[in-house]
Hints:
Blueprint: H1 22-44, H2 54-61, H3 71-87, H4 98-108, H5 111-124, E1 129-135, E2 141-147, E3 158-164, H6 171-174, H7 178-189, H8 192-200
Antiparallel strand pairs: 1-2, 1-3
Amino acid sequence: MAFELPDLPYAHDALEANGMSKETLEFHHDLHHNAYVTNGNKLIAGTEWENKSVEDIITGTYNKSAVAQSGIFNNASQHWNHAQFWEMMGPSGQKMPSELEARLKDGFGSVEKFKEEFSAAGAGQFGSGWCWLVVDTDGTLKVTKTENGVNPLCFGQTTLLGCDVWEHSYYIDFRNKRPVYLTNFLDKLVNWENVASRLAST
């Protein structure tokens, strides 16, 4: 099925007080994400993937042995990644639900330890990519990182939280200070209710 650019779940300027500017969202959502949608639709037209879900396209075109992924995979995966990313952030700085807090303490020792591991994964991802909090195939919580557009769907994992560490996600607001961007993301931008709802559905 054709990819569609989702609307942001908040206004373009809604995250400015939390460290993500209107300009960043205009570039990131309106231009970068839209390019993945437009290019992805061109690439799947007339192929076996034209009427498949974006999740089926991602898992069906991911090549574990390839250094570089196909254009179809890259655009489909980045479309999915960004659609999740917008929902994982919010302007109100919600308190972390107790159920999620308990699981993070159980999985990482403390919420702070989780944040340290998540930030280290994002800062340590060489070049473009993402860092993730996932439910692994054995049911445990795990922090991972992936290159370019690769995401947890490729490994049978359930995505709870993801942070985009491509430069276009943070360079306007934080220049080359990726670790500062990651700390700000965790402390001021994450919609913890959204993360908790993903966990509850596993």
